[in-house]
Design goal:
Elements: E1 11-12, E2 33-38, E3 44-47, H1 48-52, E4 57-64, E5 69-80, H2 81-88, E6 96-101, E7 105-110, H3 111-114, E8 120-125, E9 128-129, E10 139-141, E11 154-160
Parallel strand pairs: 1-5, 2-11
Antiparallel strand pairs: 2-3, 4-5, 5-8, 6-7, 6-11, 8-9, 8-10
């Protein structure tokens, strides 16, 4: 195990625990869509088929849960956040993004972090479709932050001028969520 990859206070796991608040939403490909709104030139509404037909990439990343476990070398396939942002063309005053997910879940990120080369809207995990428990049909993965920023069941994004804390952030979790600084709670 490489200690330099394991943030302080974390334990390495081989299995992928399932943690979420509330039930697992049902997926209906006929009604599912991904929206882009807010401070951008282009607003979008994509069906699932349209979304998965966007240019995709595969990444291998580490994953850190705020509850104290980490996993190394998880394989994700999907669409980079910046691919969506480049099509939407956020306005210069857009400095933040809200990630919109079922069932009414949100999380927030500075746009600068969302645009990193490893932030991905994943629809596959380790060469298989995501399972519903892990966010099928779409989850955001933000490897450098605690996993509550990696929202499951994503349905869209909203570009914002000002930060808008999400579900866990309004309940006392850290807004910045840096596992290397152990920013678990505010």
């Amino acid at each position: 195990m490489k200690k330099d990859r394991l943030p302080p206070g974390q334990n390495l796991r081989d299995d992928f625990p399932v943690l979420h608040y509330g039930g697992i939403p049902e997926f209906d490909e006929g009604t599912w869509n991904f929206i882009v709104k807010g401070f951008s030139d282009t607003h979008m509404k994509l069906t699932y088929k349209e979304f998965v037909s966007l240019p995709s990439t595969t990444l291998i990343t580490d994953f850190h849960c705020v509850t104290g476990w980490s996993m190394f070398n998880l394989g994700w396939k999907g669409v980079l956040f910046k691919t969506i942002a480049n099509q939407a063309k956020p306005h210069q005053e857009a400095k933040f993004v809200s990630i919109l997910a079922d069932p009414g879940y949100t999380t927030n990120l500075p746009l600068e972090i969302a645009m990193n080369d490893d932030v991905i809207f994943a629809y596959e995990y380790n060469v298989k479709p995501l399972s519903p428990e892990h966010g099928f049909p779409l989850r955001l993965v933000v490897p450098k932050l605690y996993a509550y920023k990696s929202a499951k069941w994503v349905r869209g994004i909203e570009f914002l001028k000002e930060d808008r804390p999400g579900f866990w952030e309004t309940r006392g979790y850290s807004n910045s969520a840096d596992p290397w600084k152990e920013e678990r709670y505010s």
